[in-house]
Amino acid sequence: MNSDLSDATQALERAAASCRERGASLTAIRREVLALLYRTPKGIKAYDLLEQMRQTRGNASPPTVYRALDFLIEQGLAHKIGRMNLFVACRHGAHSSPSLFLVCPKCNGVTELEDPDMVTSLYASLAATGHRLDSPEVEISAVCPQCVAGREAA
Amino acid sequence: MNSDLSDATQALERAAASCRERGASLTAIRREVLALLYRTPKGIKAYDLLEQMRQTRGNASPPTVYRALDFLIEQGLAHKIGRMNLFVACRHGAHSSPSLFLVCPKCNGVTELEDPDMVTSLYASLAATGHRLDSPEVEISAVCPQCVAGREAA
DNA sequence: GCAGCGATGTTATAACATCGCATATCCGCC
DNA sequence: GGCGGATATGCGATGTTATAACATCGCTGC
Ligand SMILES: [Zn+2]
Ligand SMILES: [Zn+2]
Ligand SMILES: [Zn+2]
Ligand SMILES: [Zn+2]
Fold first, then answer.
1. Out of the domains of life, which is the source (chains A, B) (predicted)?
2. Is A96 helix (H, G, I), strand (E, B) or coil?
3. Is residue A23 within 8 Å of A79, Cβ to Cβ?
4. Cβ density class A42-59: b for 16+ within 10 Å, e for less
């Protein structure tokens, strides 16, 4: 049975609720963008997103999608992978602990990984040099399991 | 006394030697770009680099600098910080172990940090999910010591 | 009504990066 | 010296990613 759809719907409703709690609102545009992000778990580029948007909203323009993305990132609902100019939905409602973003150089897929031990070690390293961790996004280039196996997924 | 200059000169000569070992050649353009990277340890953008280049080489164009940067990155002499579209010289001749790149969101400065413990922990995390580390560049957003102290360096 | 405000529409442009093809330079070989 | 391939550079155009600037809409409170 089709649980993906209802999963996505539930996730959208949770997202809307968490925005409301913070006094922000998940408007129709933002909701559509977030839904598209949910549909492409490996990440999507802003202009591909724009193209998708235009299918239901002919007048969508770059600011339309960038504004929605900025909002979603502010709300912790999405992340940007700078290395690849790729945007992904956050897999963890709203996480306080940083995530590792594993970017596969073969298939360009992104995997979000939470790992408390890593983060502990990370904090220690940074503290030792006087730095303070700022964002929840740590980008790492790492070949994904599929591509390690040689299957070179799309 | 002015040891920066001779340091940079030495570094350039080491770089040239390591290129030669690999059958590559550090040509005049590439050498100039690398020298500019050495002069801006916090990282520099491609088009700022281009502007600098034009002061001594009026006909420099975007491909001029991007080609040189690609070469330097291939040779392990420079790194790209995807998050910021910033390029930095590698602080470690040619390093096999990955580095952490701490990008300060206040001053946009980049610090390259080698930390074996972190890397060990990182390998463990990745192996646990079937990933294999690919590139020597791990990007982390972290406020630098100067900015932690509130000095908001340029 | 009508200010105040957040969101959106719209146009243009800034900023970053690559392509394609011609020319030049180097180097080993005849 | 002359040739041929590989590498490097010049140069114009183009492609890709992101933001600036300004107008407008729709709601809420007064
Ligand atoms: Zn997340
Ligand atoms: Zn992959
Ligand atoms: Zn390095
Ligand atoms: Zn700083």
1. Bacteria
2. coil
3. no
4. bbbebeebbebbeeeeee
CA–C1' distance B32–D1 (Å)? 35
Residues facing residue A138 across a β-bridge: A100, B140
Q: Which two tokens stand for residue B73?
A: 């990155």
Q: Specify the DSSP element, H or E, that contains B117.
A: helix B116-128
How does the average pLDDT of chain B come out, rounded? 89
d(CA A12, C1' D14) / Å: 39
Interstrand relation of B110-113 and A110-113 (parallel, antiparallel or unpaired): unpaired
CB contacts under 8 A, A 76-135 vs B, are 81-84, 100, 102, 104-105, 111, 113, 115, 117-118, 121-122, 124-126, 129-135
* Backbone angles phi and psi of B26, in degrees to 5: -85, 90
List, as ranges, residues with CB under 5 A of the ion ligand 1.
A 90, 92, 99
Residues of chain A with pLDDT under 50: 152-154
pTM: 0.90
B78-81, strands of its sheet edge to edge = B44-45, B86-89, B78-81
- pLDDT, residue B85, reads 96
- pLDDT at residue B94 above 80? no
**Which structural domains are found in chain B, ordered by start?**
2-89 (1.10.10.10), 99-149 (3.30.1490.190)
Interfacial A residues in 15-54 facing B (CB < 8 Å): none
Output the CA–CA distances (angstroms, integers) from residue A21 to B42, B83, B103, in the order listed: 39, 30, 31
DSSP H/E element including A9 = helix A3-21
Question: What is the distance between the alpha carbons of residues B98 and B12, in angstroms, rounded to a whole number?
Answer: 22
Distance A144 CA to ligand 3 centre (A): 23
In the predicted structure, residue B132 carries a pLDDT above the cut 60: yes
